Give the backbone structure.
Amino acid sequence: MTTTAATYHVPVLLQESIDGLDIKPAGIYVDVTFGGGGHSREILRRLGPGGRLFSFDQDADAEKNIVNDNRFTFVRSNFRYLKNWMRYYGIEKIDGLLADLGVSSHHFDDETRGFSFRFGDAPLDMRMNKRAGMTAAELVNNASEEQLADIFYLYGELKGARRIAAAITKARSAGPISTSGDLMNAAASVIRQEREKKEAAKLFQALRIEVNHEMDALREMLLSVSELLAEGGRLSIITYHSLEDRIVKNVMKTGNAEGKARQDFYGRFDSPFRLVNGKVITPTSTELEQNPRSRSAKLRIAEKV
């Protein structure tokens, strides 16, 4: 199947996330998760002739969806380097930033990337940036049993993390784990059959997060945003699992990833942000029917004060 911007990824919470940016026609905006370009196109539609949009994506495949617009700049990079790239382009302040932290449909459906357990012969890669870094296969074949257990528990929230790590360690002693099927076979004996799909999804999620250092990148990007956002600028972020959502919530409430509330001299809570939506925004029933992958999405919006 030929991948187009329309099939690469259906944008989640499109109107709600862009509405949350409260776009100024002449403003400067950043989409740190370009993907299929759905959110970026909607931002451009609302910008005036003097506005600018910088969109980040480290995956070379996303470049096929680049927008032909003189207000648009594509940055092929991990969003953890946001501050450096803004400095490179001479941008001191931005008026809003959007992040859709979910993995695109394209990645799950591309059997050459190893993101999904659906393709047994897929090489176990999972790198968003195929040019650099350790693959998932290298990780599962070289990490210690204890390291694997920690990864599965922390990033996959798997209760059987230690059993799965032990099973993988035992399996790799008989031969390297190279494909998605190899990994599933290695873990099969300790994954309950009635929960196989759910636990396999969590297992693959945990490896993907570790391979791409997603939590570290998210923390670095959010700290950069707190400095880059102009007063009144908006932060609109869509999360999909509890760990990343906790980090986003903490930063928006307290200004730091740990959620440690700071007080000024007068005892008032000191945070660089004001929450715009007190309650998280979730997809409507209509969107859930049209795009089942949006089911765990949560949108949080904050404003720089």
Summary: Residues 145 and 266 are 50 Å apart (CA to CA). The chain has a mean pLDDT of 89. The chain is about 40% helix and 15% strand. The beta strands are 28-31, 52-56, 72-75, 94-100, 229-239, 273-275, 298-304.
